[in-house]
Amino acid sequence: MKFHEMEIKQVEKVLETDFSSGLSTEEIKKRIAQHGHNELDEGEKQSALLLFFSQFKDFMVLVLLAATLISGLLGEYIDAIAIIAIVIINGFLGFFQERKAEKSLQALKELTAPQVSVLRDGQWLKIPSKEIVIGDILKFTSGDRIGADVRIIESKSLEIEESALTGESVPVSKSIDALQTANPGIGDMENIGFMGTMITRGSGLGVVIATGMKTAMGQIADLLQNAESQETPLQRRLEQLGKILITVALVLTVLVVVIGVFQGHELYEMFLAGVSLAVAAIPEGLPAIVTVALSLGVQKMIKKNAIVRKIQAVETLGCASVICSDKTGTMTQNKMTVTHLWSSGHTWTVDGVGYQPQGKFYRNEKTVHPKDEKALQQMLIFGMLCNHSDLVMNEEEIILDGDPTEGALLVSAMKAGFDRPALLKEFTVINEFPFDSARKMMSMHVKDKQGRHFIVTKGAPDVILGNCESILWEEKTQYLGQEIQNKVQDAINGLAAKALRTIAIAFKPVPAHTVIISEHEAEKKLTFIGVQGMIDPPRPEVKDAVKECKEAGIKTVMITGDHVITAKAIASQLGILTGKSKVLDGKALSDMSVEDLENVVEDVSVFARVSPEHKLKIVKALQNKGHVVAMTGDGVNDAPAIKAADIGVAMGITGTDVAKEASALVLLDDNFATIKAAIKEGRNIYENIRKFVRYLLASNVGEILVMLFAMILGLPLPLVPIQILWVNLVTDGLPAMALGLDRPEENVMKRKPRSPNEGVFSRGLGWKVVSRGFLIGLVTLLAFMIVYQNDSSRLDYAQTIAFATLVMAQLIHVFDCRSEKSVLSRNPFGNQYLVWAVISSLVLVLVVIYYPPLQPVFHTLPILAKDWLLIMGLSSVPTFLLAGSFLLRKTK
Ligand code: ATP
């Protein structure tokens, strides 16, 4: 169907839709049934069965299975079956862990899926783009990505960047006219918007003509299937470490086997023990547990309104040393209310609450009627006209639909008794030049009832002032001489010093029937009318968040398009601008190279009157100084800086699709304090990973050493293969996961950020692993020797004692791992998950010791009560010894 050749009325007919009310719910159901969801096919997923079998492709597991098979053939049926059962249970554990990791990554993807505005049953709704059907009417504005292929049916200066399809990065302007060209290429289809392309300017409406794989993007969808790798730096490091650990474990295992054989043990017996030991000691599950810990962390962050789009960010968050944050809406509430107005040398104040359109005007503290004040009146009317916001009455409150800055201007005019529908009867809008943060202005070309044409402009006062050549002073247009300019400037500064955001209003008459095509032409030689100043109160939680960041060694930098003085006032209120820190404005920033900026950037706490383009420079300069930078943003122009930052942060409410896609973190509530919460969580997750790495590796060291020591001393095997495998199974999985869920230590936001280059074993972790592992191995051996020396005829009993001691030493040691300091610095039982994990591990061990049918399988004998004293005494030695040495160091 050649929709580009049709007039829009015909498109409406062919698609059986209605441009004024959209499709009906009934019709949508039918169309979904007919065409399916608006999704692109993704690459083949690994099936569950394949994932399960992939758990056994590990080399050592295969060797173990082979060895077990041999022992089975030699008649050791019970051993063989038990070992295979354990290997299968282990496989299931690995399978579930990987499945969980995969599922949470998938859930995350769904959570960050784009939403679109669609007209259905006469109402505008936000829906996931997956639910779009042919015939739907979509609305899009600058920064959005189009959710499906559409025929444009309304264009307000609409420009779309289609490089995803055409490779051409220059945006194309779009119109609604039917095309005459016979077979236009994608780049020439000026009335079609394509799925996945990005609106760079203006806004528009489109009716959906193709969805899913039928779209132009769908045709090339295979290009999209090479998804980014989601491996984090820590995972990569652990994988490298894993390789080293495998080698070390294998070498030690071989050593155990060789020494054992040398000491007179049978080769076959030693071989099976060695392979079991290698399987137990190689931390093959570590990467999967890390992924699970990271994704559980992601889920915790969602509860705190932070969505991590890239799992790598969880780790990087903990390293953040600077947060560069927008002011408006992130640090402030973005609930603007005009409180002061200035024109013709007079200042008015206006009262009222929020967006309630009731309030009184005062001049020199006396109530005035705004309609008697001509200059004020003109400023209010134009502020209401050059405006897109609207108030919607809800059952309980008045809600603003649109930009809060414009909402404030709308409400100030309403307080004076003006009404927009009536105003729009007086003025017809001919053309519009939308606001952008770089120009800091917006204009409308309007015509009044008498046929007079005007340009009405509003924007940042200093910018507007620079574009004015005259001023409306007490109803008369005057030349804007230096003297008056100074007066205006003083007035602007006066408002800004009260922490008010300022907007100036200006206009110019233009001859009828002139066509003004560029904003540059529209916005010059203006006549200044006045300024409105609006409060935007800081979010109450931000001040504390800034303070907490400071204590955590993280600097907060405010970046804003607002006036320098306004920015300073708010930054001081929030504790961002203190002592020696400096303010830099956009002009100065433009004149600096990245290298120049590097010299001063660490002293600057506020960047004001900046354009989004400046943000990239700031990120680069900070990174060159060795900082790990979090940078927030919402618009299209913010995307490069968000991408370049170590942690790009996009606003969930006001953010555009493009900003969100570029980001690693999305703030659901647009709140600065949420960034802090995410950093805290990021630090905690990393610490938790350290905790279980430490626990697992120390346990493995203990397992290897007890065997090695025994062989060196010429003793029998202190543990039989099945016991080694069982220890590995019951002590590794659950307790390690529980450590991954631990709450942060109190001082987690009281230390400096971690260096991103920090190795896995830094800050003494390597020593902790080796020393704890050594002690665990030692006490296990001691327990074995004491019992065996006492009665060497009962080897089984001594092995059961060693088995119990090894398990107990690990399960006591796990509480030690909750703190980087010592077991005494935190309530050991403060982590409920850990307590339950340890109890279940204990039960699993006691079952194989005391449940008679399992005793022959695990070569165990019931342990006598008096021997538990020995086991408990010895297995708590490592933890007490280390707690003691900690106390000693502390008292020194
Ligand atoms: P940030 O969110 O980065 O703190 P900001 O929201 O204050 O910055 P911009 O939205 O770029 O920055 O606004 C810059 C200036 O442009 C404002 O100080 C204001 O004077 C002016 N301005 C803001 N919104 C509008 C608008 N809708 N129309 C005209 N001018 C505007």
From TrEMBL:
InterPro entries: ATPase_P-typ_cation-transptr_C, ATPase_P-typ_cation-transptr_N, ATPase_P-typ_cyto_dom_N, ATPase_P-typ_P_site, ATPase_P-typ_TM_dom_sf, ATPase_P-typ_transduc_dom_A_sf, ATPase_P-type_domA, Cation_transp_ATPase_P-type. It is found in: Cell membrane. It comes from Bacillus salipaludis. The chain crosses the membrane at residues 48-71, 77-96, 244-264, 270-294, 692-713, 719-741, 769-788, 794-812, 833-853, 868-888. This is Calcium-translocating P-type ATPase, SERCA-type. It holds the Pfam family E1-E2_ATPase. It comes from the Bacteria. Residues 2-76 form the Cation-transporting P-type ATPase N-terminal domain. GO terms for cellular component: plasma membrane. Signal peptide: none annotated. It is a multi-pass membrane protein.
